[in-house]
Amino acid sequence: MAWLHTWTGLLMGWLLFAMFVTGTAAYFQEEITRWMKPELVGATNPVAATQGAMDHLQKVAPDAESWFITPPSARNPATSIFWQPKKKEGEKRERRSDTRATLDGNGQVIHARDTPGGFFLYRFHFDLHYIPVLWARYLVGAAAMFMLIAILSGIVTHKKIFADFFMLRFGKGQRSWLDAHNVAAVFALPFHLMITYTGLVTLAVMYMPWGIAANYARSDSFFEAVYPERAEVSPTGVAAPLVSIAPLMESASRQWHGAAVGNVRIVNPGDKGVIISISRSPASSIGSSAETLMFEGATGRSINAGAGQSRALATQGVMIGLHAGRFAGWGLRWLYFLSGVSGAIMVGSGLVLWTVKRRGRLPDPARPPFGFRLVERLNIAVIAGLPAGIAIYFLANPLLPLEKVDRAEWEVHSLFIAWGAMLAWAMVRPARRAWIEGLAAAATLFALVPLVDALMVSRNLFTGLAAGDWLFVGFDAVMVLLAASFACAARIASRVTLPTSSRMRSARGTEATA
Amino acid sequence: MIHILGILFSTLGSGVLCAGMAKHQSRLVGRKLPPSTVRLMKFGGFVVLALALAIDASGLGAAYGLIAWFGHLTVGAAVILIRLCSFNASGLRR
Fold first, then answer.
1. Would you say B3 and B72 are in contact if contact means Cβ atoms under 8 Å apart?
2. CB atoms near residue A460 (< 10 Å)
3. ipTM of the complex in this document
4. Less Cβ around it within 10 Å: N or C end of chain B?
5. A435 and A429 in contact (C-beta within 8 Å)?
6. Cα separation, A279 vs A299, whole angstroms
7. Which residues, at least 6 apart from A335, have a Cβ–Cβ distance to it below 8 Å?
8. A276-321, pLDDT tens digit by residue?
9. Cβ neighbours for A31, distance < 8 A, ≥ 6 positions apart
10. A14 CA to chain B: closest CA distance, Å?
């Protein structure tokens, strides 16, 4: 079973590392967005903010097909709005940025800097970038499947899970790497199993469409049956004003035993047939398929949306919810984050282990074969390069001029330019030097983030502490911690002595550990 | 608050379990323990971990508590591991 673990792990290892890193960061996507949009401040009342957003939409998009409002929450002080203009004949739907806006508590537009924020890291986790979403999702799904196989075969391969539970020996080459790989895997094993399996479930319908294909003529009719609130409603053509939203939101909250409203969708605004759907906040329960209540927007009367959710759908919702962790409060969110970090360490140490194990057996260590060199260089480019790229992404945010055209896109490009540069660097430098330099570069870049932010955005660790702004203090602290960890890793890498006369030393090594 | 208690008990539980293991005994306790004590520690360690689950479940509800418990187990084991490593490092320096 060991070969299965080795090769499933290696083949998708780099993609899995990137997924673990960005997915872990995505647990704090709202907080990252707030850090990247320093213009958003203060807390607002969600009900008043929703009414304000509706008044604003009434002005800018009275004849839209639908409005979508995400009121402020504990994690995000701003209201996000999005509207779909009426479809013109033969028009193709595209993602548009001119039909979305960020509002304050009174429905006034906030001119925050144009940045994808934490949302980009969240999307990259399963949509990647620069390639079609569909391909990306199949690729990511294959990686997750490999991960599941690697975890299960890893459990079988690791025979002494309990006997070696706390075993972590330093300075013993391959043995140490194996210990680190085991500890990172075993300590958070429940999380790794859960996150891999539920990750597959999030896109299961896409990977296995046959259930729907066998029972529904079109996949759209399946989604309409499952989510009645998404069904298309034709306008009547008779104009009618909207009721005020406060009583509807309050009644919805009451029905959910006080849970907050997550979003409000208004279809056919201004028409007599207007429908208001109010969905529960994903923060209020583990299950991700948020309960939705529907109202007639002209009268405020509640519409019975039909039978409740089936058990299979509820199960799926809970699995997706467990994966995304939107329900998690601060304590649980940090536990999710730490478990994700251990997942990244597990994948990273596994990738390094592949080279460490084989380096000792190379016939000529000075001139390793192509495959070995490739794995070694890709390891450096991904394990040191991606974090460095993310640090650049955080640096580009305060540094790029606010009025730059396509600013948000360039923040993302900067990540990949930096990552590509790290890859090129890893390819041309001697491997050992490249490790040290790559890790040191990541450390330096992360250390620069709080400094540059303090210079450019006129806030720093001390003003943050003084104002009790824990979000900014926490972000800066994590950056400093990451910088310290990478510096530490660079130091360790600079101390490692590579085996020179490979065969003899590795033979001696196995004798010593046996 | 519940998280602190949960982590505290998980750390205690993993610490007792770890101290009950022959490999780590000398580092954590400083001497070899008699087999009867080891047996008691193995049992006691699991009891303390179960207690952590009980605390989490009563504080956060069964569902949230169970999820948090798995996280607390991870953190608790990590704390013991870091403690072990620091023992090892000081042992090396000596």
1. yes
2. 17
3. 0.93
4. C
5. no
6. 19
7. A328, B3, B68, B71, B72, B74, B75
8. 999 999 898 898 777 888 899 889 898 876 556 788 888 999 999 9
9. A75, A118, A471, A474, A475
10. 24
Write the pLDDT tens digit of every residue in A47-71.
999 999 999 999 999 989 899 999 9
Kindly state the DSSP code that residue A206 receives in the 8-state scheme.
Answer: H
Contacts of A341 (CB under 8 A, 6+ apart): A24
At A460, the amino acid letter reads N
Burial of residue A441, with CB atoms counted within 10 A of its CB: 0-12 exposed, 13-18 middle, 19 or more buried: buried
DSSP A291: -
Chain B nearest CA to A75, separation (Å): 19
Optimal mutation site among B4, B55, B60, B74, interface A, most CBs of chain A within 10 A = B74
Contacts with A83 (C-beta within 8 Å, 6 or more apart), sequence order: A57, A60, A61, A64, A65, A66, A67, A68, A99, A100
Of residues A330, A344, A332, A335, the one with CA closest to residue A485: A344
Return the exposure string of A388-417: e unless at least 16 CB atoms fall within 10 Å of the residue's CB, then b: bbbbbbbbbbbebeeeeeebbebbbebbee
Mapped onto helix, strand or coil, the DSSP state of residue B1 is coil
Q: Measuring CA to CA, how many Å separate B69 from each of A117, A180, A472, B6, B8?
A: 31, 23, 28, 7, 11
pLDDT for residue A512 is more than 80: no
Residue A267 belongs to what H/E stretch? Answer: strand A261-267
B17, B75, B88: residue with CB nearest A338: B75
**What is the phi-psi region of residue A151: left when phi exceeds 0, alpha when psi lies from -120 to 50, beta otherwise?**
alpha
Radius of gyration of chain B (CA): 15
> Two tokens at B26?
């000398």
- Residue of B7, B46, B71 lying closest to A187 (CA atoms): B71
Mean pLDDT, all residues of chain A: 89
Which of B2, B23, B77 has its CB closest to that of A187?
Answer: B77
Nearest CA in chain A to B2: A331
Selection from A260, A252, A335 nearest residue A300 by Cα: A252
Please state, in angstroms and rounded to a whole number, the distance separating the CA atoms of residues A304 and A292: 11
* CA-wise closest residue to A509 among A178, A166, A183: A178
Question: What is the separation, in whole angstroms, between the first and last Cα of chain B?
Answer: 39
Beta-bridge partner residues of A296: A275
pLDDT of residue A28: 97
Q: Which of B14, B68, B81 is opposite residue A335, by nearest beta carbon?
A: B68
Q: With a CB-CB cutoff of 8 Å, which residues 36-65 of chain B face chain A?
A: 63-64
Q: Which of A423, A414, A408 is nearest to A391 (CA)?
A: A414
- Dihedral sign computed on CA atoms, order B23, B28, B29, B30: positive
Amino acid identity for residue A265 in this structure: R
A280 C-beta neighbours (distance < 10 Å), count: 22
